[in-house]
Amino acid sequence: MICNNKYLHPAKYQKSTSGNKNAQGDREKAEVTSGTVLCLLCPHNCQLKEGQKGICRTRINCGGQLYTLAWNNPCSICIDPIEKKPLYHFLPGTKVLSLATAGCNLRCLNCQNYSISQFSPDALQAHNLTAQDIVNKAIEHKTESIAYTYTEPTVYFEYMLEIAKLAHQNGIKNVMVSNGYINREPLLELCNYLDAANIDLKTFNNNTHLKLTGAKLQPVLETLLTLKEAGVWLEITHLMIPGYSDNLTLFKEMCQWLVTNGFAQTPLHINRFFPTFKLCDSKPTSLTTLRDAKKIALECGLEHVYNGNI
């Protein structure tokens, strides 16, 4: 049975009908149907019946309590240059230990890592590595930081948090590469141990964001503001997908919003799209569009703008 999975671990940020004293989060007042658990980790706020997994495929209702299946079981781990995250202004020229578990709370049509992000941790082979094991590997390979990346680190929140605490105790920095789809309270808890983040601002239109990812745009904007408020080093990635996020008028609105909200000095990575996953019939982003977008961003007042994937 899945509720006997050896990687099962109690999850944070939940509310159940059993009067769970650990209920936390911005949306605690949401109604919970009898026999369900309300997950308050991300804005999906999934209501889960017994044995049911959330949209992320990592969180499950077992016996009226919320558990995570993403614990001590990374499906991918390797050493990367920090610039690959991409982070250009944080520990440049250094190596970072990167890891991920299976699962994601979005359904991006263009996902490059769909072979791990669109599966539950119990459906894929994984390494058996505790938080201490991860930190020991970072020490062994002399990396100055650990990155939670490849899939969406929000869905392995408890594992990430445990590693991050141990990393700081050992003088190692923590980096989150994320879609930004997380509720404020868990994000603020993580920020106590988070040194840098790259957030993927996929588009600046809510309807397009819903179509492309299955999620709303506003929570991502709120995450950017929260990270800024918490003093976490931030860089932003915008992938220009033809027909979805390459509208230069909307792109200009996005840049203006960033400048108005205090992100003028935040590095912006404008990346080229290549056909993948459910958008294999699309075309790569034109180099002209990328150059025009960079010019617009600079004219709007953004100070550090880079074209990527070229």
Q: What can you see in these coordinates?
A:
This protein has 310 residues and is α/β, with parallel strands linked by helices. The protein has one domain (76-308): Alpha-Beta Barrel (TIM Barrel). It is built from eight helices and 14 strands. It has an eight-stranded mixed β-sheet with strand order 7-8-9-10-11-12-13-14. A three-stranded antiparallel β-sheet has the order 1-6-5, with no helix packed on it. Strands 2-3-4 form a three-stranded antiparallel β-sheet, with no helix packed on it. Helix 4 links the parallel strand 10 and strand 11. The longest helix is centred in the last third of the chain and has 14 residues, at 287-300. It is globular and about 55 Å long.
